[in-house]
Specification:
Elements (H helix, E strand, L loop, with lengths): L2 H15 L3 H13 L5 H19 L9 E9 L4 H17 L26 E7 L6 E7 L1 H4 L9 E3 L3 E3 L3 H15 L17 H10 L12 H16 L5 H6 L24
Length: 273
């Protein structure tokens, strides 16, 4: 196995079995905020115990280790085809060692490849940069539980129980709160939000996912404006100014099913959230 393959295998193992410090801190903060002996507290304690056990035993944190998605920056002139071949071998070896679950299933035949390799698997995005000395590799393992709750909004639009969301930051805030509400109990807990404002269908999802590669509570772009906006959003939910649990308790016992894109009224300018 080459040095590059060894590095990829180590990255996969670390990503699958050990959460980074900022996520651990967020989990600890969540545990401290919950009332002891409640169902929420018990659930978070089980999750926290599982996180520690996975790290200690070097086993996958989740039963679904997700779709391996790599973002790689290379110096000009590096053979990216050779790197991709080595990467695929590392994926297969990580699966053989049990660091990744065998998730690659043919969408038409239902056949599992057994090694996480297949058409379009893994996902690899290459970029070049003017750093002749280093190759940067980032990996996200995003499972189906959270992937299936991704959602996009075209504003202005009407949202159940929240009313009209305009093409303003307050409208974006409503869309984010609605996204959290419609995902509760269906995606894997605990959750993190990656948000993109603007772009088209493809770039919006791409940039939102990239937010998950940075530290928790990080904002990119215009840091002052977005920092204030983020703090207000967190305050509205966490401090009880907007109690989503109380709101949810008063909602009808009917799950909200997002409308397909063709039935959503599109504005003249298709700003995406």
């Amino acid at each position: 196995m080459s040095l590059f393959q060894d590095s990829i295998l180590a990255l996969i193992t670390e990503t699958s079995t050990n959460l980074p410090p900022d996520v651990r801190r967020a989990m600890a903060d969540g545990l401290r905020c919950e009332t002891p002996s409640t169902q929420a507290s018990q659930a978070l304690n089980v999750i926290a115990t599982n996180i520690d056990m996975a790290s200690e035993d070097e086993g996958p944190i989740c039963q679904d280790t997700g779709m391996p998605t790599f973002k790689i920056k290379t110096p000009v002139g590096v053979n990216q085809l050779a790197l991709q071949r080595d990467l695929r071998q590392a994926i297969a070896e990580a699966t053989r060692r049990g660091k990744l679950r065998p998730n690659s299933v043919d969408s038409l035949t239902g056949k599992n490849s057994g090694d996480n390799l297949g058409a379009g698997t893994p996902i690899v995005h290459f970029e070049q940069w003017e750093n002749p000395e280093e190759i940067e590799i980032k990996l996200i393992l995003k499972g189906g539980g959270c992937e299936n709750k991704n959602i996009q909004y075209s504003v202005p639009c009407e949202l159940p129980h929240l009313g009209r969301a305009d093409r303003t930051l307050d409208g974006v805030r409503k869309c984010i709160l609605h996204a959290v509400w419609q995902a509760q109990g269906q995606g894997c807990s605990a959750g993190a939000l990656g948000v993109c404002i603007g772009g088209d269908r493809t770039s919006g999802y791409t940039h939102a996912k990239e937010q998950l590669l940075g530290p928790q509570r990080q904002t990119s772009g215009t840091s002052g404006l977005l920092g204030e906006y983020r703090d207000r959003l967190i305050s509205d939910v966490v401090t009880g100014k907007l109690d989503v649990r109380e709101t949810a308790a008063n909602l009808p016992d009917v799950a909200y099913v997002p409308q397909p894109p063709e039935t959503v009224k599109e504005p003249d300018r298709g700003d995406q959230t």
